[in-house]
Amino acid sequence: MDKLQYTRECLHDTLVREALAKVVADVDALIPLSEDDFWVVQKMGLYPAEQCIPFITKQGTPFYQLDNMALVPRGDTANLIHYGDFEFRQLEILYIMARMDSSEAHFWLKEHLFQGCRVDARKKMEYKAKFRGLERADWKQIQVEWMKYCLMLKYRDNALFRNDLMACGDNLPVEDATGTNYASNLFWGARLIELDGKKYYLGCNVLGKLLKQLRDNGGVLDYSLPDDMHLFGNKIITTI
After folding, report:
1. What does pTM read for this prediction?
2. Among 11, 13, 16, 238, which is least packed, fewest CB within 10 Å?
């Protein structure tokens, strides 16, 4: 089957659309118009498996530090990630924090839940439930831009992350969603499939594409955030 046709048919599947609609504002915007679009950040694509470096959220696995859920080892103060005076062991903490348009929510996370600890799916659900109704109305539109910002902080502060990223060589990092069933698995990552006897990763792989850009651009990503976006009641720190 034609790779473009296969990818587009995947995005017309009802269950796939319902899952992605929980993550993005417009599922149709993910549909590629050509195979060149496979490499556009927020487009669905097929990526030859032999050109990919997959990683998963499991300590001790290859390229573990590329995952947003990856933990800086306890006691490793040299690789902690910093946002102002807030330091943390896991990038997902900062990423999920900005989902809420609430200083109270941000401080609650900083002081009570994630400081020095680990975020998981259960804790993210607890955060969203506690501050229900305070999520930014534009979150789906700005989440990728905020991810770019977060990744640059990690690149700046975490040598473990930089080492794993450089070790990918020219290959495409892929958040391997093959064994997961989260709504976001085909947006931030991709799953392994076989088409006409050849293996590919299928998905938008937004995180993987951003990681490739970050590596190729020496730790810099162009991003644009709303003027009213804030953390802890202050505008986002713009100097990285």
Report:
1. 0.94
2. 238
